[in-house]
Design goal:
The strands form two sheets. This protein has a six-stranded parallel sheet with strand order 2-1-3-4-7-8, sandwiched between helices. Helix 3 links the parallel strand 3 and strand 4. By secondary structure, the chain is of the alpha/beta class. The protein is built from nine helices and eight strands. The chain has a single domain, classed as Alpha/Beta hydrolase fold, catalytic domain (Rossmann fold, 3-Layer(aba) Sandwich). This is Alpha/beta fold hydrolase. Keywords: Hydrolase. It holds the Pfam family Abhydrolase_6.
């Protein structure tokens, strides 16, 4: 199976480095994307939009031979919104979307327009701006390493509205790897009609896998995250 790994805010494709071995050793082919504007801290990202990130994933999907089968999209955090929109654009080419501490973003929603913007981009904020649940298992060493590698996210990616057009996206199976909050809690919120899980509630086939840790399991529990992705994808 071809697996496309989509990073969240402040991260490039290398953020998946400790997760990839579990997938490749199981026989899967992986491609960890670095999205537009995230090539380096010095890249010009002033005009990069959410659609640019989505289009980059769609281009990656299209690069695979359709005769070779469908692909799996794995999106972490804000990358989950990008993965969902790519599945909307290519519902017949995506076998499953795996949301890593993330949920699909519905039509008109924004990923997070409350983050502090500096000169048209969103640098990694001070740790005090995050919720305690975000930072579980993120010790001082991991925090320092993350801040050292962090690349500012384009402002428009955080605040552009999601645009979707094909309801066949609801037929694409999904897995939520639940980290900060359990799958049971997500289902409870769906039953209550909470807005941020409204799009998730519309997907017809969803599995939930609990991986209790903070918001960045690729750093705090990478091997376990690899195994969770394998459990959702199945054998090569």
């Amino acid at each position: 199976m071809d697996i496309i790994l989509i990073p969240g805010f402040w991260l490039d494709g290398s953020s998946w480095d400790e997760v990839v071995p579990a997938l490749t050793h199981a026989g899967h082919r992986t491609r960890a994307l670095t999205l537009p504007g995230m090539e380096s801290k010095d890249a010009n990202r002033s005009k990069i939009t959410l659609r640019d990130h989505i289009d980059a994933v769609v281009e990656a999907i299209d690069s695979y031979d359709p005769a070779g089968g469908k692909v799996v999209l794995v999106g972490h955090s804000g990358g989950g919104a990008v993965a969902h929109a790519a599945a909307d654009a290519r519902p017949d080419r995506v076998a499953r979307v795996v949301y890593v501490d993330s949920v699909p973003l519905g039509e008109g929603g924004v990923i997070n327009d409350e983050l502090p913007v500096v000169n048209g981009e969103v640098p990694l904020p001070d740790w005090s701006l995050f919720e305690p649940e975000d930072l579980v298992d993120m010790d001082d060493e991991l925090r320092a390493a993350f801040r050292e590698r962090a690349i500012p996210t384009p402002e428009h990616v955080t605040s552009d509205p999601q645009r979707l057009s094909d309801e066949r996206r609801y037929d694409v199976p999904a897995t939520v790897i639940a980290c900060e909050f359990s799958g049971a809690k997500l289902r409870e919120w769906m039953e209550q009609g909470q807005g941020f899980v409204r799009e998730l509630a519309k997907i017809r086939d969803v599995d939930y896998l609990d991986l209790p840790t903070g918001h960045w399991p690729q750093f705090t529990r990478p091997e376990e995250l690899g195994r969770a992705i394998l459990a959702s994808v199945g054998p090569a």
